[in-house]
């Protein structure tokens, strides 16, 4: 199998293709489709030229093994393009190169150490400089390839490493080994592509750089082995991953540009700008999410973690309020583990740590470095607290609602009984839904807001039985109370006054003082005329309870 390398793609959109359409298609469909195959693609970066030459745009993908680009897994992507992709790509002049990695060297002793752009916060990655140098070798000169590579390794890269801001140099060979047998490439002369990464502030054109370009050995190598050389400089402007997230470009498109992937995996709505897609966890679980709200790339993000048996839509009423009252926020909702069937072979019961790590995976896929806030209820409330304990660097504050800091034997027995109901037959989940909503909701909700109760019964009844069985076990045996005093993330606790007939108000009041060092504790807000899901039963009153904290 061919070794690692790069898919190197230059692009020049036609004048008739709007910049927003080009970028939104690439960032939300084309790029993420490839990055959802991590066994093949390790990164996806987009650059724009710093000069006036065409093509203006470059995309690079680090490839784990170049032979994978010759398999149906990759080739079928092009053969089964969506109609939108086929239309858009028809308006772009594309030059696609397969490059085999020959040599790489990056900063090691310098401080700070080298970090690849895909692992940097967007604000740090954007603006990094890439210098691309393509060399064609003189035909018929024995050893030209090896001689030029040796010069790079022994002299040129070591001298470039002295240029202020130098980060990394890589040497690639093209045509790639996987193309060598094709008639289109068999007669092409060997070429080398050198890619040099520099910081935004750098010494390109300075004394050290000029010294690296004017040695006697360089002159001899060029005279003896090199036929032509071309050089382009680019700046990084977008890092994409497996999860579409470009609300900015999407918000500038007309409503007619709404898109749904043929397999339903991605749906985008322009204007108000929302993206519905999914990420896949390490154990193969697909987690649907919705990203909406403020389309600015750097907008602070508030995330919502739903309760067991509900979906991300349980937050609909609250999100409507949030969009109106806090247009500065970007909003992330997702279906927590348990909503859908879990990966088999065999299914593994969930834990609170798994639930917290699922959110960390989602944030990484969306390039969200730190949440402004996380709001969770019931199992989502326990997840919010555990996320604050487990991933404090990813979170500024959290709101944990209607949850317990520790499980009990009585609750474990109750969960086992509910599993038996759900698995009792075709109508088992509907029976569980009726009992659950009756237990969750305040009598006022059941009497005065029958539509809310009916909608919640339908949502619960649509839950995966298998997902429920294996995910409710996260609530069987846990105790976060010993870890709560070390929590460095400020939190707010909220509960409906009628949850468990008032028993949960007393329970949460009992452990709220454990949060944070020095007995700082968490404030407890009680929402009137609400039960287990106050944000569904009384969204306006719930917003009043959390508005100041958020």
Automatic annotation (TrEMBL):
<feature type="domain" description="AB hydrolase-1">
    <location>
        <begin position="300"/>
        <end position="537"/>
    </location>
</feature>
<keyword id="KW-0378">Hydrolase</keyword>
<protein>
    <submittedName>
        <fullName>Alpha/Beta hydrolase protein</fullName>
    </submittedName>
</protein>
<dbReference type="InterPro" id="IPR000073">
    <property type="entry name" value="AB_hydrolase_1"/>
</dbReference>
<dbReference type="GO" id="GO:0016787">
    <property type="term" value="F:hydrolase activity"/>
</dbReference>
<dbReference type="InterPro" id="IPR029058">
    <property type="entry name" value="AB_hydrolase_fold"/>
</dbReference>
<comment type="similarity">
    <text>Belongs to the AB hydrolase superfamily.</text>
</comment>
<dbReference type="Pfam" id="PF00561">
    <property type="entry name" value="Abhydrolase_1"/>
</dbReference>
């Amino acid at each position: 199998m061919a070794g690692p390398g790069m898919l190197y793609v230059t692009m020049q959109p036609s004048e008739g293709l709007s910049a927003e359409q080009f970028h939104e298609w690439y960032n939300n469909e084309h790029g993420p489709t490839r990055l959802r195959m991590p066994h093949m693609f390790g990164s996806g970066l987009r650059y724009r030229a710093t000069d006036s030459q065409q093509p203006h745009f470059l995309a690079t993908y680090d490839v784990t093994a170049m032979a994978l680009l010759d398999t149906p897994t990759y080739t079928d992507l092009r053969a089964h393009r969506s109609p939108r992709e086929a239309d858009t790509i028809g308006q772009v002049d594309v030059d696609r190169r397969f490059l085999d990695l020959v040599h790489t060297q990056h900063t090691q002793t310098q401080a700070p150490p080298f970090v690849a752009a895909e692992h940097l916060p967007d604000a740090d990655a954007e603006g990094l400089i890439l210098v691309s140098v393509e060399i064609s070798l003189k035909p018929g000169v024995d050893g030209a390839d090896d001689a030029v590579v040796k010069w790079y390794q022994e002299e040129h890269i070591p001298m470039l490493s002295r240029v202020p801001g130098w980060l990394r140099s890589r040497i690639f060979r093209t045509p790639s080994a996987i193309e060598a047998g094709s008639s289109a490439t068999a007669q092409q002369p060997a070429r080398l592509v050198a890619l040099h990464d520099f910081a935004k502030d750098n010494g390109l054109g300075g004394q050290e750089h000029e010294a690296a370009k004017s040695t006697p050995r360089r002159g001899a190598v060029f005279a003896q082995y090199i036929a032509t050389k071309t050089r382009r400089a680019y700046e990084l402007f977008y890092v994409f991953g497996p999860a579409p997230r470009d609300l900015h470009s999407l918000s500038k498109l007309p409503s007619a540009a709404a898109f749904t992937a043929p397999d339903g995996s991605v749906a985008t709505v322009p204007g108000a700008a929302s993206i519905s897609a999914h990420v896949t966890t390490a154990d193969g679980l697909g987690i649907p999410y919705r990203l909406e709200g403020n389309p600015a790339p750097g907008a602070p993000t508030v995330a919502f973690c739903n309760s067991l048996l509900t979906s991300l839509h349980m937050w609909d009423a609250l999100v409507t309020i949030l969009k109106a009252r806090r247009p500065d926020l970007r909003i992330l909702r997702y279906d927590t583990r348990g909503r859908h069937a879990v990966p088999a072979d065999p299914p593994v019961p969930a834990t609170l740590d798994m639930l917290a790590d699922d959110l960390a995976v989602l944030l990484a896929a969306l390039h969200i470095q730190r949440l402004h806030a996380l709001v969770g209820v019931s199992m989502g409330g326990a997840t919010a607290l555990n996320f604050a304990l487990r991933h404090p660097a990813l979170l500024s504050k959290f709101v944990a609602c209607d949850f317990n800091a520790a499980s009990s034997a009585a609750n474990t027995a109750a969960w086992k009984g509910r599993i038996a109901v759900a698995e009792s037959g075709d109508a088992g989940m509907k029976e569980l839904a009726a009992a659950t909503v009756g237990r969750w909701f305040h009598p006022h909700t059941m009497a005065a807001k029958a539509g809310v109760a009916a909608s919640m019964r339908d949502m619960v009844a649509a839950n995966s039985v298998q997902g429920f069985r294996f995910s409710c076990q996260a609530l069987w045996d846990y105790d976060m109370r010993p870890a709560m005093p070390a929590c460095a993330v400020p939190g707010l606790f909220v509960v409906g006054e009628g949850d468990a007939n008032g028993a949960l108000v007393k329970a949460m009041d009992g452990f709220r003082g454990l949060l944070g060092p020095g007995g700082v504790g968490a404030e407890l807000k009680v929402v009137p005329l609400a039960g287990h899901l106050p944000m569904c039963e009384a969204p306006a009153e719930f917003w009043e309870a959390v508005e100041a904290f958020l």
